[in-house]
């Protein structure tokens, strides 16, 4: 098999193919990943039967323990969106923070809602609340828009059960440490959200929007089609119940408690069971138990999860092929020789994710692809255990924030629903996402030095 610098060149060409195929030739990332997996394996001299075996096992193996988690998280998000529970959560945060700090309220609302709901959908369903609050408090519409957009963006790339971080944890072998990933994700997301809030108040506030051309026009109220919004407890339970259960499971596992009660808590605290319990809890949000909700709403969540499952599986296949090459031995030699000391291991996933995000637009795709690429190198570099792996997930998520621009669907959701002109959006939105990415990575480095 090929070894040494030539093998690195093959891997670099494989990554370059993924970027070029998805951006210039508009090939779907799923096919790009699979073609790259076969191409890298064959070119690196891996025996053909082993290439096929690695692709199959990498795809199926990852789905065996992360697939249901992704599906369940996506279904919860869809039910929160369709039932109006996301709006109820927004109202609660708004009342808690107060209308004197509207941008902070929007940032916090976004950060909470985007944990289970994709930021694109969340921005759409919260847009009317943003408009109403901006009009009522006489605050710049652009400032409110960027505060909401950056709040949504922070947790979207950092905190499970959002599919991207879950998929990264699975690729990196940290699926058993989701509780730790959630806790560290929240720690990193707080300053990242505040960085977006700072940009919204200090920079975006001076940006004009088309919405402000008629400030006296009546603003839209909450969407009437939701009907009566669910109670606060019902709205928050599907999010926080799984997080609490996973957290309890992580604590018991860490403390190594061994009794029948601990076994039960470990069972319900496993990510698959905890997320399924969250799905069942979300059924309380149904206005009616009928075909529209039990089949329709759940079916929409299943459809939304399909693309994430395919990308995650293809990423697992790519990672398995990389593991089948001699790259592990090369990395092991570098690690033992001190070439990859300490926190330096975080820079590579951050830069790869940032390059992929900037090139092809999708944060989730950047997270999945990067985690698949770096997974084979971590064990050889001595990166193992809950906290180190969680911090690598954070580094990847930080890179997947920088930057959101015209090839990102979220960029267009924000600009079209807020009335920000494209030229102004580069300054208000794109630069805000760059600041968030840098902030998230800086916090990740700090936590590495403090905790590892």
Automatic annotation (TrEMBL):
InterPro entries: Glcn_transporter. Keywords: Membrane, Transmembrane, Transmembrane helix. The keyword Ribonucleoprotein does not apply. It comes from the Bacteria. The chain crosses the membrane at residues 6-23, 30-48, 60-80, 104-126, 177-200, 235-257, 264-286, 306-325, 337-356, 386-406, 426-451. Pfam families: GntP_permease. This is GntP family permease. The lineage of its organism: Bacteria, Pseudomonadati, Bacteroidota, Cytophagia, Cytophagales.
């Amino acid at each position: 098999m090929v070894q040494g610098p030539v093998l690195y060149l093959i891997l670099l060409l494989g990554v370059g193919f993924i970027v070029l195929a998805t951006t210039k030739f508009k090939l779907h990332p799923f096919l790009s990943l699979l073609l790259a997996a076969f191409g890298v394996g064959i070119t690196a001299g891996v025996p053909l039967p082993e290439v096929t075996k690695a692709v199959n096992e990498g795809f199926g193996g990852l789905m065996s323990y992360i697939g249901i988690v992704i599906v369940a998280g996506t279904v919860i998000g869809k039910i929160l969106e369709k039932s109006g529970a996301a709006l109820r959560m927004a109202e609660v945060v708004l009342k808690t923070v107060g209308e004197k700090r509207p941008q902070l309220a929007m940032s916090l609302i976004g950060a909470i809602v985007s944990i289970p709901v994709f930021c694109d959908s969340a921005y759409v369903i919260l847009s009317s609340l943003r408009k109403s609050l901006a009009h009522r408090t006489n605050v710049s519409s652009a400032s409110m828009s960027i505060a909401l957009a950056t709040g949504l963006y922070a947790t979207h790339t950092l905190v499970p059960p959002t599919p991207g971080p879950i998929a990264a944890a699975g690729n990196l072998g940290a699926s058993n440490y989701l509780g730790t990933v959630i806790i560290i994700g929240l720690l990193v997301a707080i300053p990242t959200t505040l960085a977006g809030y700072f940009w919204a108040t200090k920079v975006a506030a001076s940006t004009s929007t088309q919405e402000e051309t008629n400030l006296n026009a009546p603003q839209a109220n909450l969407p009437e089609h939701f009907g009566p919004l669910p109670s606060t407890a019902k709205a928050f339970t599907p999010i926080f119940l799984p997080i609490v259960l996973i957290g309890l499971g992580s604590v018991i596992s860490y403390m190594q408690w061994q009794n029948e009660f601990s076994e039960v808590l470990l069972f319900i605290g496993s990510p698959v069971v905890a997320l399924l319990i969250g799905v069942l809890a979300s059924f309380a949000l149904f206005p009616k138990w009928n075909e529209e909700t039990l089949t329709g709403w759940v079916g929409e969540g299943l459809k939304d999860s399909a693309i994430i499952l395919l990308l995650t599986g293809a990423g697992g296949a790519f990672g398995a092929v990389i593991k089948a090459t001699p790259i592990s031995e090369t990395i092991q030699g570098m690690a033992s020789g001190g070439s990859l000391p300490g926190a330096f291991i975080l820079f590579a996933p951050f830069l790869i994710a940032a390059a992929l995000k900037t090139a092809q637009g999708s944060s989730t795709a950047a997270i999945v692809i990067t985690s698949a690429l770096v997974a084979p190198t971590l064990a050889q570099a001595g990166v193992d255990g809950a906290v180190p792996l969680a911090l690598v997930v954070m580094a990847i998520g930080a890179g997947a924030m920088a930057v959101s621009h015209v090839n990102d669907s979220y960029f267009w959701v924000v600009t079209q629903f807020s009335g920000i002109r494209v030229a102004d959006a580069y300054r208000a939105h794109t630069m805000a996402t760059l600041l968030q990415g840098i902030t998230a990575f800086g916090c990740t480095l700090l936590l590495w030095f403090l905790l590892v």
